[in-house]
Specification:
40% of the residues are buried. The protein is globular, with a radius of gyration of 17 Å. 38% of the residues lie in helices and 15% in strands. A hairpin with a 5-residue loop joins strand 6 and strand 7. The longest helix has 15 residues, at 226-240. With 241 residues, the protein is of the alpha/beta class.
């Protein structure tokens, strides 16, 4: 197994980004960016995280009214990136080709239900796609309300890519369910500090990830850097061609 950790920024407020960094301290984190944020910007500038694009193609997107405008937004605010994952995994072949033309060579555009033997996929656009093994909101959607991790643990050390994807606001609020997020959403975004009640006290995204990471590390596993793997794939592709 190759363990990798990514996160979707999703316009998280700075306090939630700080909580994400603290919860993942010591683990290489690749952040897919949606917007400027002083906490995330500093973390990238200092080398604490690596970063890629998290473009939003859904209606009403603040990234632009067209795929081309969305690409331009990303290029202006997060130049030099060669990785991407689209918001809500929403894409099409036209946009995938635009991403490739803009310099994206590796994406992480497929979410699975902790599937074994995942490998990089060569997409028709020219990018290599690294499927996600575990995503926090997918997990609590399928395994709420008890959030039993046994089905994930049974596959944790099977061969293949093990991309774990977290959301800053879910981790910061220890979100346990879709309903909890919807109930507190208006009190999460646009606030300088967490509002009373948004932090779930039981099992949630934070406690589940901490439990899974402990299992990985206890059994001798170690999270590798997503950006390093992406760069290795790109370098091997250049040599092969």
């Amino acid at each position: 197994p190759l363990f990798l950790l990514t996160s979707d920024q999703d316009w998280a407020p700075p306090w939630a980004m700080q909580a994400l960094l603290e919860a993942t301290d010591g683990t290489p984190l690749h952040l897919f960016r949606t917007n400027p944020c002083p906490v995330a910007d500093e973390a990238f500038a200092s080398g604490r995280i690596s970063q890629g694009w998290h473009p939003n193609l859904l209606p009403g997107s603040s990234h632009g009214r067209s795929p081309e405008e969305t690409i331009a937004y990303m290029q202006q605010r997060f130049p030099g990136c060669n990785t991407a994952r689209n918001h809500a995994y929403h894409t099409d072949t036209h946009f995938d080709r635009l991403l490739f033309e803009a310099g994206i060579r590796v994406d992480s555009q497929i979410a699975t239900l902790w599937q074994e033997r995942l490998v990089p996929l060569a997409d028709v656009s020219g990018t290599f796609r690294l499927p996600v093994f575990f995503e926090d909101d997918v997990f609590f959607h399928h395994h709420g309300p008890d959030l039993d991790v046994s089905s994930v643990l049974n596959r944790l050390f099977s061969p293949g890519l093990k991309v774990f994807n977290l959301h800053a606001t879910f981790l910061a609020c220890n979100t346990p369910s879709d309903n909890h997020y919807k109930e507190h959403r208006d009190r999460i975004f646009g606030t300088e500090s967490p509002r009373p009640g948004v932090m779930h006290q039981g099992r949630g995204s934070h406690t589940v990830f901490a439990e899974l990471r402990k299992h990985v590390e206890t059994k001798g596993g170690k999270f590798q850097c997503f950006q390093t793997l992406a760069d290795q794939i790109i370098e091997n592709t250049i040599h092969d061609s």
